[in-house]
DUF423 domain-containing protein (Flavobacterium agrisoli), 128 residues
Amino acid sequence: MKRKMILIAAFLGVTAIALGAFGAHGLKQFLSEAQLTTFETGVRYQMYHALFLLFVANLIELTESKRKIITLLVVLGVALFSGSIYLLATNSITSFDFKIIGFVTPIGGLLLIISWIVLFAGFFNKKS
């Protein structure tokens, strides 16, 4: 599981960097400042959770089942939260109206919050 988590974290990290660069350089002329700021929020949270997975992968005190749950929550959370933010921020330059998927953003955010709660619970319930 540790290897899989590190691979997922690396993928999330590299795509966050690529999307951040694309947003800063490739989208700058097409999006407003507010849209770019929104796009950057998606990038930032994706990177935070890539680092979070690296951290969790290296915690020897955490059970494998908790690692699996956290990984699943982070992957789904980033896909829904950051993914929907990317689409919503670039809505003005596409032919599809992504506003209809806006409801998934808070669901993704909730999954990310729950991943941190699972980490907390994993240590809270553990005897030292």
